[in-house]
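cache lookup: miss for this entity combination. No prior model stored, computing from scratch. Input as submitted by user K.M.:
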Amino acid sequence: MRVPPARRRRALRKASLGVAGLAGFLTVWQLIPTLGLVNPQYLPYVTDVLARLAEQLVDLAFWRRLGSTMTSWAIGLTVATTAAVVLGTIVGLVPLLRRATHTTVEFLRPIPSVALIPLAVLMFGIQQRAALVIIVYASFWQVFVQVIYGVADVDVVARDTARSFGLPRRRQLSHLVLPTALPYLMTGLRLAAAVALILAITAEMVIGNPGLGRMIELSRSAGDATGLYALVVVTGLLGLVVNLVFRFIERRVLSWHQSVRGEEVW
Amino acid sequence: MTGYPGRVAFPPRRRRLGFRIAASLRHALGLPMLLLVAWGLVATRATSQFFPDPLAISQAFVDTWVGPAFVEDVLPSLYRLGLGVAASIVLGVAAGTVIGLAHWLRELLEPLLEFLRAIPPPVLIPVAMLLLGITDTMKVVVVVSGAVWPILLNTIEGVRATDSVMTETATSFRVTWWERLRFLVLPAASPRIMAGVRQALSVALILMVISEMFASSSGLGYRIAYFQRNYLIAEMWSGILLLGLVGVLLAVAFGLVERRVLRWYHGIREVNRA
C-alpha cells in the first residue's frame, strides 16, 4: 500500500514540529541557568545532564540498578495481573459475588497504595518483597476493575444464543467472554504497567531497596543535582518505553477489534 | 418493547420494601463484616504483632485522630491537597483548551508532553525539594506536577473531538470567540475533563502522602511514617484507615459533583441507549 503524498507531507510536518518542540524545551532549560534565573546548582545545564546521562549508559552499575527496578516491576505486574484476571473473571461472572464485593472493592480501591509502605516495611524490612507488596496492590485494582466490567459486558443476545446452541461452558469462556473482555483487559494492563513502574521507583525511594529510586534519593541527599536530573530523565524515558510497548501490544492483540480497525482506516 | 420472542415476561415479583432494603444492606455490608470478623479472629489467635485486632485499631483511631491532631495533621494535608487539585484543574483546563484549539501547537508539544507525562511523578519530589526547599509550596507543586497531566491530556482530547458540525455552525453564526468557548467547546469537552479530574484526584492523594513522608514535620503521610518508625502499630493502621476514608470520601464527593456537572450528558446517553 502506497502512502499518498499529502499524508506523507502531513506526517513529516508533524514529526518536524514535534522535534522542534523538544528542541525548544531543551533550549529553554539551557537558557534558564545560563541567564542566571535559577542557580545552576539547583537546575544544572542541560548539556551537563545529557553528558551525565551518556556516562551512565556505559556504566554497568547503572544497568544493574535499572535491572533490579525492572525485575520488581515485572514480578509485581505479573502477580497482580494473574490474580486480577482470575478473581475478576470469577467475580464478574457471578452476579451474587459482584453485588457482595462491590462495597469492599470500592473501599479498598481508593486507599492510596503508598499508605501501605510503612506496613510493608514492617513486614518485610528493606527488601524487594516490601516493594512488591506495594506494586501488586496498586496495579491489581487497575486490572481487576477492568476485567469485572469486561466480563459483565457480554452481549445478552450473544450469550442467549450460545446457551440455546448448548455451547459448553469452556467454549463459552473462550469464544464469548474472552473476546468481550479482552479490550478491557488490555486497557487495564496498560494502566497497570504504568502504575507498577511508578510504584517500583517510589518504593525504592521511600523504602530504600536497591534500584533507580534509591539512586535518585542518594543523589538528592548527596547534593548531586546533575545526577538527579539525569536519573529523572531516565525514568521518563523508561515510562515512555513501557507506555509505547504496551500500546503496541494492545494494538497487536486487538487488531481484530473495531476500536483498532477503525483507527487504521483513517 | 424489546422483549425476546420465546421468553415469557413475568411482572417482577413485588417484595415488601423492608425486605428489599434488608437484602441490599446484606449485600453492601455482608462481606466487609465477614472480613472484619475474620481479621479479628486471626489477630487474636496469631502471634504477629503487625496485625492488631480491629477493636484496637478503632480505639487507636479515636485516640490519635480525634482532637488536636486533626487540626495539626489532617487539615494541613487536606488543604495542600485541595490547593494542588484546584491549581491542576485551572492549569490543565486552560492550557488544554489552548493546545486543543490550535492544531500546530498540539503537534509542536505532543512528543514533549508524552515524555513529561511518562516521568513517574514521585521522582519530581527530590527535584522540587532542590528548587523550592522543604516548604508548603513545594508540596503543592509536587501535587500539581503529577495531577495536571490527566486533566491536561483529557482536555486536549476533549476539545479536539468537538463535533465539527457544531463548530461550523458556530462559525456560520459568527458566534464570538468567548461565547464559543463557553457554550460549545468547554461543554463538549467536559465529559473528558471530568474523567481526567477523576484520575487526577487519586494521583494527587498519593503525591500528597509521599511528599509528606519525604519532607515534612506535619501531615498524614508524616504521621504514618512516624508511627511506623516508632513501632506504634495500631496507630499506624489507624492512619492507613484514615487515608482510605479520605480516598473514599473524595471518590464519593467527586461522583456527586460529576453527576451534577454532567447531568445533560448522562441524560443524552440514556436517551440514546433506550
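stored under new cache key. The first helix of chain A runs from residue 5 to 34.
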